[in-house]
Design goal:
The chain is an alpha/beta fold and about 900 residues long. The protein has 28 helices and 27 strands. α5 links the parallel β10 and β11. It binds adenosine-5'-triphosphate. One of its GO terms (biological process) is mismatch repair.
Length: about 900
């Protein structure tokens, strides 16, 4: 549709008295929802007015016109037919808008004066139920965040609700933990207390995810209010059963979610049956940068590929959503990891059985979202048929699990409950191919209700009778083209084309003249019309009642069907992991209690799949033992494959801890509790921070959070500044990682600073490796093999040449390099390094800030701890670092 010119608009507030009654009603309702676009039902249309109309017209590409509003001025207007709501609503929500749907609350024919209207639903990006807004394979979370601070208690709480599935989660901790959850759950909307505006903006918004936000009155974010809301909803005396009884911030955040549901007219929430705590101790610590950098869930670039895309071979949307959560939250304890792996191994071994299971699981589809629609009474007949089909597929799945004679699978089979009673009811009562809307066809089977069957007989015999009348009149009048039809204005009528007009009997009553025909009614037709219309009205209302009755019968099974959905999605996720393991030739990792990492012939699971046909991924071994090989300094030319090696190591570890087989010939994984990755000079200009500053603050956060079981990947840390600064910082970081008193985090440090190879001479757990290349006739061949020892050259000029750099630049660069080399720059550098001051911080005292530190160091410690990195400019940071270096070096 084309857009007409916009006009000056007014949302009418001045001359209220002169408004039309309709606009007066509109303004009253709009005043209650100033933050939302109000879709105002007028007859068969949803209309928007004023500023709303201007926005809606733009987003929906619909015509913007004007409407007279009495003497109160004209007002902009844009609308669409009510039956197109499903097309237009998703566009508004996807544009991040809140949309209040205002319906007519009474039959306009029965209304005295202006039709009563009210908002029946407020759709916000986080509260969506429609399939055309939701993504199948992703949860759609609403998050609530609360920064709690008083003299006795300080914590950040968060709650996450997926209204479309009923999943409700809560967590509490420091913001660094909540930030991780926000990254991994990726909510589409976050609500927060108005009292937290500053914290929200400086912390949450700064993180920069793509969500819409809404501030709520602060009295909602209070302990008593939230506690009561939650206990009332769950019908419990306390919150102990949910594990959040003493977590005030989490409780408050969760309570606000329930409040928000009510204010947005989501009163049906029977499917939210529990609140689960997301326990920090259970999952691997992955800060948001690491989650993004390892591309676990979302690729970094538009045409990239994430780990979940490679691993997801599930056949149901609910299975896909669960697997996504597994990938987002790798486990930390060996036992549950081993359980998942055992299941996957069984399904790999029994691949025929796995195939059979998957074929039934396909039929199950999205049981989780279907049953939620039942709970909120918004399921249409076609979806109810899908639910019936889902339930039909469950008994064979249970059978297969039991017949497998494998303990793990039988255990899942035991958890699955058959719902024969309700299934039978659906089979008996629901038509196989019902319409989308109950009142638009036959939904309820014959034999369910006697009165309904009788009325249907009357209706169809009446229709037969009309056919007989038609035949009779054709013979009586000789009008061969005579038709009997129906319209809403004058009911059943006889249509006669102009050619036969003269043959029309006198007693027929003419009702309408068309270009080519005329329409007549007769008393006999009227009489039958009465019978048919009455019967059809009754049929429609009986069917409506029976259908809703059926839905509420199914609603009694929400809890058990939700449980089934849970175990079936688990089964689907496990089958999917087995499938991907077989397809990609992955192997089962061995999860160990020790701290050793032993990957044989490991491959990067994503790059491996994306290589051009004919190219083979070169596998590599990575064997790390914190007692002897704790830190790898990995050098090698540009493009050699250093970053790929770092990432594949972390990905293989995480795949294992997700419960997946791994892209390696074999792997022994001593479970890790934290994975950190940092990439030098990652570009963060969008956030207004210098790249180097970001690099340093991210590195600082790693160094402050290390544990003995951490896996650290540092990719060219230090490259964001001048060479000497860079080398010095990189050098100091490696020393620090080697010298922590209570932790020996396994570290892969990729660098172009070959100078760092000297470190191994002084530190026994540092090893040098390089990703090898071969130089043949001035050209480099990438061998991609990890070999012991440092490399001398970067071959940067060769890579520049490969990249199509102008010949002049390549030749001049080679000339300059030759000059530097013949002047023995490198030699000199080496000597300088050998005579570098030895680090005495770690000697005798275990830690830079250990118990025997001198007062000067204590002072520096205090200064560092008081330093707010976020407030420092890059230059200030460098100056401070320099100052500290000088003071410490004295
Ligand atoms: N083991 C491998 N087998 C096959 N191809 C590989 C392998 N490792 C890396 N590659 C390919 O080489 C490309 C460059 O690898 P990578 O980015 O890891 O190099 P790098 O050494 O980190 O380079 P730079 O120092 O320039 O950042 C990758 O995108 C990938 O396509």
């Amino acid at each position: 549709m084309s857009k007409k010119a916009t006009s000056k608009t007014s949302t009418t507030d001045t001359k209220k008295t002169k408004q039309t009654p309709l606009m007066k009603q509109y303004n009253q309702i709009k005043a209650k929802h100033p933050d939302a676009i109000l879709l105002f039902r007028v007859g068969d249309f949803y209309e928007t007015f004023g500023e709303d109309a201007v926005r809606a017209a733009k987003i929906l590409d619909i015509t913007l016109t004007q409407r007279a509003n009495g003497a109160a001025s004209k007002i902009a207007l844009a609308g669409f037919p009510h039956h197109s709501l499903d097309n237009y609503l998703p566009k508004l929500v996807r544009a991040g808008l809140r949309v209040a749907i205002c319906d007519q609350l009474e039959d306009p024919k029965a209304a005295k004066g202006i039709v009563k209207r009210g908002v029946t639903e407020l759709v916000t990006p986080g509260l969506v139920l429609g399939d055309n807004v939701l993504e199948n394979k992703k949860n759609n979370y609403l998050a609530s965040v609360y920064f709690y601070k008083n003299k006795k208690y300080e914590a950040v709480g968060a709650a996450f609700l997926d209204l479309s599935t009923g999943e409700f989660l809560a967590a509490e901790g420091e913001y660094s933990y909540i930030e991780q959850l926000l990254e991994r759950f990726a909510p589409s909307e976050i609500i927060y207390s108005k009292s937290n505006k500053k914290e929200f903006e400086t912390q949450v918004v700064r993180q920069g995810s793509n969500f819409s936000q809404f501030a709520i009155e602060e009295w909602i974010y209070t302990t008593n209010f939230a506690y009561e809301k939650l206990t009332k909803h769950f019908g419990t005396a306390s919150l102990k059963g949910f594990g959040i009884e003493s977590l005030h911030a989490a409780t408050i955040a969760a309570g606000a979610v329930l409040y928000y549901l009510e204010t947005t007219e989501h009163h049906e929430k029977n499917h939210i049956i529990s609140l689960s705590r997301v326990e920090q101790d259970k999952y691997v610590w992955l800060d948001s940068f690491t989650t993004r950098n390892l591309e676990l869930l979302v690729p970094m670039h538009a045409n990239g590929c994430s780990l979940i895309e490679i691993l997801d071979k599930t056949v149901t949307p609910m299975g896909a959503r669960l697997l996504r959560k597994w990938v987002a939250f790798p486990l930390k304890d060996a036992k549950p990891i081993q359980n998942r792996l055992r299941n996957v191994a069984t399904l790999v071994k029994k691949d025929a059985l796995q195939g059979e299971l998957r074929s039934y699981l396909k039929e199950v589809g999205d049981l989780e979202r279907l049953i939620s629609k039942v709970a909120v009474a918004r399921i249409n007949p076609k979806e109810l048929v899908k639910l019936r089909d889902s339930l039909e597929a469950i008994p064979p799945i249970k059978d297969i699990l039991f017949k497998s004679k494998m303990n793990e699978l039988e255990a899942i089979g035991e958890k699955i409950v058959l719902n024969n009673e309700i299934l039978q009811k659906l089979q008996n009562e629901l038509e196989d191919n019902p319409p989308l809307n109950v009142q638009q066809g036959t939904t309820i089977k014959r034999g369910v209700n006697k009165e309904l069957d009788e009325l249907r007989d009357i209706s169809s015999s009446a229709k037969d009778f009309l056919e007989k009348v038609r035949q009779r009149e054709i013979i009586a009048t000789g009008i061969t083209s005579l038709k009997i039809s129906f319209n809403r204005v004058f009911g059943y009528y006889i249509e006669v084309s102009n050619a036969h007009k003269t043959k029309v009997p006198a007693e027929w009553i003419r009702k309408q003249t068309l270009v080519n025909a005329e329409r007549y009614i007769t008393p006999e037709l009227k009489e039958w019309e009465e019978k048919i219309v009455t019967a059809e009205d009754k049929i429609s209302s009986i069917e409506y009642a029976l259908y809703h009755n059926l839905v509420s019968e199914v609603a009694k099974y929400v809890r058990v069907i939700q449980q089934n959905a849970k175990y079936l999605s688990m089964l689907d996720a496990l089958c999917g992991l087995a499938e991907v393991a077989m397809q990609n030739n992955y192997s089962e990792p061995e999860i160990t209690d020790n701290n050793i990492l032993e990957i044989r012939e490991g491959k990067h699971p994503v790059i491996e799949k994306l290589l051009p046909i004919g190219e083979q991924y070169v596998p590599n071994d990575v064997i790390m033992n914190p007692e002897s090989e704790q830190i790898f300094i990995i050098t090698g030319p540009n493009m050699a494959g250093k970053s790929a090696l770092l990432r594949q190591t972390a990905l293989i570890v995480l795949m294992a801890q997700i419960g997946s087989f791994v892209s390696a010939k074999s792997a022994k994984i001593g479970v890790v509790d934290k994975v950190f990755t940092r990439v030098g000079a990652s570009d963060n200009i969008a956030k207004g921070e210098s790249t180097f500053m970001v690099e340093m603050s991210e590195t600082a956060s790693i160094l402050n959070n290390l544990s003995d079981r951490s896996l650290v990947l540092m990719d060219e840390i230090g490259r964001g500044t001048s060479t000497y600064d860079g080398i010095s910082i990189a050098w100091a970081i490696v020393e620090y990682l080697h010298s922590l008193p209570n932790a020996k985090p396994k570290t892969l440090f990729a660098t172009h600073y070959h100078e760092l190879n000297e470190l191994k001479n002084d530190f026994d757990r540092i090893k040098n490796y390089n990703v090898s290349v071969k130089e043949v006739g001035g050209k480099i061949i990438f061998l991609r093999k990890l070999k012991e020892g440092g490399s001398e050259h970067s071959f940067g000029i060769n890579v520049a040449s490969l990249a199509g750099m102008p010949k002049e630049v390549v030749l001049r660069a080679s000339e300059m390099m030759h000059h530097f080399e013949t002047n023995k720059f490198a030699e000199k550098d080496k000597k300088t390094l050998q005579s570098a001051p030895k680090n005495t911080f770690y000697e005798n005292q275990g830690s830079l800030f250990g118990s025997q530190t001198d007062p000067a160091l204590e002072k520096i410690k205090d200064e560092l701890l008081a330093l707010d990195i976020n407030r420092l400019s890059p230059v200030e940071a460098l100056l401070k670092l320099n100052e500290l270096k000088i003071r410490v070096g004295k």
